[in-house]
Every structure is written in structure tokens, then in C-alpha cells.
Amino acid sequence: MTTLLMLPPQNPTTRGWASRLASALPQLSVVVAESEAEAARAVGDADAAFGTMTEPLIRDARRLRWLQAPQAAPPAGYYSPGLIAHAATVTNFREIYNDHIGAHIMAFVLAFARGFHHYLPRQLKREWRREPQDGGVIHLPEATALIVGVGGIGGEAARLAASFGMHVMGIDARRREAPPGVLKLDGPDALDSLLPLADFVILTVPHTPATEGFMHRARFQRMKRTAFFINIGRGMTTRLDDLVAALRAGEIAGAGLDVFEQEPLPADHPLWTMPGVLITPHTAGHGPHLDERRFEILLDNSRRFLSGLPLRNVVDKANWF
Q1: Which of 95, 180, 207, 288 could cross-link 152 (Cys pair, CB 3.0–4.6 Å)?
Q2: b or e along 197-219 (b: 16 or more beta carbons within 10 Å of the residue's beta carbon)?
Q3: Using one digit for the tens of pLDDT, what is the confidence trace for 101-133?
Q4: Catalytic site residue from 86, 94, 104, 234
């Protein structure tokens, strides 16, 4: 019998998943650990696991061959030295947010293109004041989007942007062929040369050792002064002090932000009240069906594991994605 350990903490959703897995796959023994102590007693016999493993659990996971991470991009520290060195394959929940986050990206793009960053503050002041007819609008068929990170989310954003007539360029560390909508695809080394060409710079990359703080002042200074920066990936990729400095200096026109170096964003942070800044509180991935999509991946990977087939969403542990 193959054993899958559901690691703590548990909630009604994960307990429900365990019951559904056991019903769908009788050859899989599903063990639900309600506490770290229960997990410690069970981990030595686990062939697979779902959740977050502490270093002591990793050391005792002698039989473990597969770990399903509980997020698409777990927080820093999940891929600990012990987990990276362990022989187990790790998979994640990427691809489940593509449609929701793609729509969120385009909400930012359209808001900036139509001048909502000017009009929303005026609405709060009940101020009827228009931008000039020949200003305050970006004609999207004449605009260029640079999508940094053309995975599932970036690919969906590219498709949507192209449907509005935008010229879309992409940068990705893994992908070699441009997906639909992307007219030009390059590797990370091309970032500095492409930043000056974009009207919208859109980050969808995960937080990794290579991306931590890689959007800094020098890179904002390479952007057009009329360009907008959008980050819906991970907050640790962007140095907020540098972004604030760039906005204050007029080096970029504005920013649409869903993720931040520090979350929640402190109430006294200058970004809250800066002109040209639109903020959402890490909600780009919100939408229906997410738990069912997570379960579908867990179920599919369990079936694959039992059959010895390649797993979905395998992670490069050393690079965290």
C-alpha cells in the first residue's frame, strides 16, 4: 500500500480532499496528521505528502518520493536546504490562477490606458475635471507590453493584451518558444535592453534567488517616463523604496501593485497616496473554483504517482519554481 501523508495544519477543505482521495484511489492510504507530533510519527512511512515539511520531518522522511506543495509559489523558506537536498520530487499548484490573474493584469492596463488613475482620486473629491482630449489616454494598438515571466499567467496576459491590439514582448527564463500573442520572446539577459521599449512593464515572476529585488532604481530609470509598472507576481521581486523614488522623480508614470515587499502594506506607506498608483491587497488570484482546481491537481498527481507516470508541475527546487 502506498501512503500519502496530509501534513498539518488541517481545515475542512484538506480533510475533505483526504476523504475524496481515499474514495477515488483505494490503493492509496491517506493519513491525515492533525498536529506536528502526528506528522512526526507518520512521516517515516510516507511515500508521498501534501503540505509544508519542517526540517525535522524532512530528515525523517526516508521513504518520501513526492511532495505536493500547498501553493503555486510557496513563501521563502519552503524550499529549505534539507528539502532541496532530499531526493523527493516537489510539485506545486501553478496554472490554477491564469484566468483570474490575467484579468487582473488587464484591469490595471485598461485603468491606466483610460486615465482612471487620474479620475478615481477626483471622484473621491467630487471634482469634475477632465484630462485633455489628446492626453490622458493610451491607444492600446499603439502600445507595447513587456511581460516578465511568460508562464501560464504571463501567457494568458499576453493573449488578452494582444486581443486589444497591443504589441507584446516577453522575457522568460525557461520558455524557448513564444506563446500566442507574444511577438518577441527573450531570456532574462535581455531585460535591460527591452525596458526602454515598453509602455507597460508587467511582472508575473515568482520570488526566487534570481528575482529577489531585481526591479530596482536603475531598472526603473531605464523605463520610459510615460510607462507604467505592474506587479502581480511576488512582492520581494521589487524594491519598494526604489519604486517610490522613481515615482517621485517622474521616472515612470505610475504603478499597479497587488504584491509588496511587506504585507500588509503599512498604512503610513507613501504608495497609498501617491499619484498614479493603483493598489489591490494581494487579490489578483481571487476567483471561483480555486479549491477544486487544487484538488484536481492533487488527485491527478496521486494517480500519476501510483502509476509511475511523470508528475504535473514539477519544481526546480534549487530555484524555487
Answers
A1: 95
A2: bbbbbbbbbbbbeebeebbbbeb
A3: 999 999 999 999 999 999 999 999 999 999 998
A4: 234
